[in-house]
Write a structure and sequence with these properties.
Length: 190
């Protein structure tokens, strides 16, 4: 049985140290700092139970206001492949569409082997979505739209992220947890 605290603590450290530390997602800090992110650990390794857990999580998000839970991560303890996660997300988005919730929620997958289509496996830009564990992030579309409307230039976010990640020059996700990582981030942001 997976240690829920260990998986979720590592996920929170990854968000704080990499995503917020490098400001990869300028919208993440508020919900993280205010405890508005919901985290769940899944020990499932099959497609059907994982889909069922995602449906339950959407029901939970639908039952609370966004000032209680802004967004949610479901973190998988099983060693599922990146391709499996892509299939899971694609199928889940189909369910959201069938339920008429595709305009209310959107998803982002994270995986230790994440790779953007057309990118080299070792491209630093892949680290925007490389994580210590496979996971799906469910966001409220309305909040994303509001955050985008407040952003200075959303189109520059991926360009800026690529430049920061190139300067940081990560080779593996475990570097995020090493001593001295904050100093590397400070240098990458100069």
């Amino acid at each position: 049985m997976a240690d829920s605290n260990e998986y979720l603590d590592i996920t929170k450290q990854w968000i704080e140290r990499l995503v917020i530390g490098l400001n990869l997602c300028p919208f993440a800090k508020h919900s993280f700092d205010n405890g508005l992110i919901h985290y769940e650990l899944s020990e499932s390794d099959g497609f059907k139970p994982m889909m069922e857990e995602l449906v339950v999580l959407i029901e939970k998000l639908n039952s609370v206001e966004n000032d209680e839970i802004s967004n949610a991560f479901i973190v998988y303890s099983s060693d599922v492949s990146f391709e499996f996660m892509l299939d899971l997300e694609y199928s889940f988005l189909g369910l959201l569409e069938e339920a008429g919730l595709d305009t209310k929620y959107q998803t982002v997958i994270f995986h230790p082997q994440f790779r953007y289509e057309g990118e080299e496996i070792n491209s630093h830009g892949n680290f925007t979505n490389r994580s210590p564990h496979p996971m799906i992030h469910i966001l409220r579309a309305e909040e994303v739209s509001e955050a985008i409307a407040m952003a200075i230039n959303v189109d520059l976010i991926p360009v800026n992220n690529a430049a920061k990640l190139d300067r940081l020059a990560l080779r593996k996700i475990s570097e995020v947890f090493e001593e001295g990582f904050e100093e590397r981030v400070a240098l990458a942001l100069k």
